[in-house]
Automatic annotation (TrEMBL):
This is Protein SirB1 N-terminal domain-containing protein. PANTHER family: F-BOX ONLY PROTEIN 21, SI:DKEY-261L7.2. It holds the Pfam family TPR_9. Signal peptide: none annotated. InterPro entries: SirB1_N. It comes from Streptomyces lacrimifluminis. Belongs to the UPF0162 family. Residues 57-203 form the Protein SirB1 N-terminal domain.
Length: 287
């Protein structure tokens, strides 16, 4: 499977609005689909990903799922089968260099490159395994996303970033200790909700954009998609306002600052006044 290269080509305004509408509709549906949300996110980032490309990703995931053995057994057998297929046969894995690439957070690009961040590689693992009937889900360990198979009391973890290596309990403890310096808590092993996965992906995109001020348009679309999720940090409105002002959209940024100030004023009046002052300063930059 091949998709057009290179990135990035943000979509036209009209198409972008339609993609965001579809993203919000899917996120607020009864059973939001993780693949669909990731692909709509990719289409917002890259205008080269059209409807045919989106369908192509779905077909590629189906094709990969069709290469798995029929119901290989329990959780460990599923984890091993996925490692053999995606990690060893098809070469999906990650490296430190992948953290420097926006493509590493876009599902359609990860399928092409066979490289990505832990969470996007985990999305590939989950969506292929789910199509094959596996009891699979994401596990949002602090600092490192992995995949779980089977019920929690029989859980088997695999690390797609490491080619699908099947983890022992000690391995998971080391991952958490390396990321946070803390001990593994059983609550960290709970299945991740699809919308939490999407928010975490968008957080990664925001972090990528924040490190590259010249790519503020990436930070902006990531914030705006996160704001469309049913549950999101309220402070994202303030981040959006700052981005708009930084990009020279002073009126829009001032309006967002004032709107967020109204929310904040119910519990932090001094902070609300500071935001109103920032709104006035933004408008003054038009003079």
């Amino acid at each position: 499977m091949r998709f057009p290269h290179p990135l990035p080509h943000p979509p036209e305004p009209g198409r972008s609005a339609e993609l965001r509408r579809r993203f919000a509709e899917e996120a607020r549906s009864g059973r939001p689909d993780l693949t669909t949300l990731c692909l709509l996110m990719g289409a917002v980032a890259d205008r080269a990903l059209d409807e045919a490309g989106i369908d192509g990703v779905q077909m590629e995931l189906d094709r990969l799922a069709g290469q798995l053995p029929f119901r290989p057994g329990g959780p460990h057998a599923w984890a091993t089968a996925m490692r053999d297929l995606l990690g060893e046969r098809h070469g999906f894995r990650g490296s430190p260099a992948d953290y420097q690439r926006l493509e590493s957070s876009l599902l359609h690009e990860v399928l092409v490159r066979r490289r990505g961040l832990p969470i996007l590689l985990s999305v590939v693992w989950m969506e292929v395994a789910r199509r094959a009937g596996a009891p699979v889900y994401g596990v949002a360990l602090p600092g490192h996303f992995v995949v779980g198979f089977g019920p929690v009391d029989e859980q088997v973890l695999a690390d797609p970033f490491d080619g699908g290596r099947v983890l022992s309990g000690g391995d998971a403890e080391l991952l958490v200790a390396g990321a946070t310096g803390e001990a593994l808590d059983p609550s960290m092993l709970a299945p991740a909700d699809p919308l939490d996965v999407v928010l975490r992906v968008l957080n990664n995109v925001r972090a990528w954009g924040a490190a590259r001020p010249e790519r503020s348009e990436v930070s902006l679309w990531a914030v705006e998609l996160a704001l469309l999720l049913p549950s999101h940090p309220a402070r994202l409105r303030y981040e959006r306002a700052q981005l708009l002002v930084r990009r020279g959209e002073f009126l829009a940024g001032a309006a967002e600052l004032e709107g967020y100030a109204e929310v904040v004023s119910t519990f932090d009046q001094p902070a609300a006044e500071r935001m109103r002052g920032q709104a006035r300063a933004a408008r003054a930059r038009l003079n």
